[in-house]
Write a structure and sequence with these properties.
This protein is α+β, with helices and mostly antiparallel strands. The chain has six helices and eleven strands.
Length: about 240
């Protein structure tokens, strides 16, 4: 399967990938679901302490209002956020048992808010949502991936293809808490270092230029060139 990055492609992702993956036989599904209470407890502690590292999602274009979607980052494409992980030792220990895990963050969506339709970063991973708190269901709260919709169920995990267009809405009076985990698909695990470097390079340029319209004018060849020259900076050691 060919790697696909939204940053360096100018057309929608076309594949036989399903919108939502069948993960029933994945070991990491049971690992995360069986530790749901432990993970939720550590998030509650962060919220109660109003931890300074619970921050608005960096890409300001996605939430309907800046600050409606906040995250607490533990791993970003192979880069461990040591300070944050130290505050969530149990969650971190669980994550580090998962082969191919590259990213993880707590995600908080405020009441009466939404995340706009967008394409994710890549096709190389299972993007997983472990539901920590969701007090309603469709049509009041949920997400759409292509033409399929789903809502969250406390303690349950699902995975979707992040390369397809998707959106999220919360039309309830309650916050929604999830743990987002990116796990490399089996055919890409051997290329973890290079993939992490390439995605971190794309994130750098997206955030660097998000307040301008320059990216809209960059041709595909130039976007790929930016990844090529920037990714070595982000190459992880292990």
């Amino acid at each position: 399967m060919k790697k696909w990055y939204s940053f360096s492609e100018n057309t929608p992702y076309k594949s036989e990938d399903p919108s939502f993956f069948d993960i029933e036989k994945k070991d990491w599904k049971n690992l995360l679901e069986n530790n749901y209470d432990i993970i939720l407890k550590e998030l509650h502690q962060l919220i109660e302490e109003k931890d300074k590292n619970i921050i608005p999602y960096p890409n300001k274009s996605l939430a309907d209002k800046h600050g409606n979607w906040t995250i607490f980052n533990l791993y970003q494409w192979g880069k461990k956020r040591a300070e944050n992980c130290q505050k969530c030792l149990n969650t971190t220990s669980i994550l580090e048992q998962m082969n191919g895990m590259v990213s993880c963050s707590f995600s908080i969506l405020k009441p009466h808010s939404s995340i706009k339709p967008h394409k994710g970063d890549s096709n190389v991973m299972y993007r997983c949502h472990l539901t920590l708190k969701c007090e309603d269901t469709l049509p009041n709260i949920g997400m759409r991936v292509r033409d399929e919709k789903i809502s969250w169920e406390n303690g349950k995990l699902f995975a979707f293809c992040d390369a397809y267009e998707h959106e999220v809405w919360n039309n309830t009076d309650n916050e929604r808490f999830i743990l987002i985990v990116d796990i490399l698909r089996e055919e890409f695990v051997a290329h973890k270092k290079q993939i992490c470097a390439e995605v971190n390079a794309t994130l750098f340029w997206q955030l660097k230029l998000q307040n301008t319209h320059l990216l809209d004018h960059f041709p595909i060849w130039f976007r790929k060139f930016l990844i090529l020259i920037t990714s070595p900076i982000y190459r992880i050691k292990k």
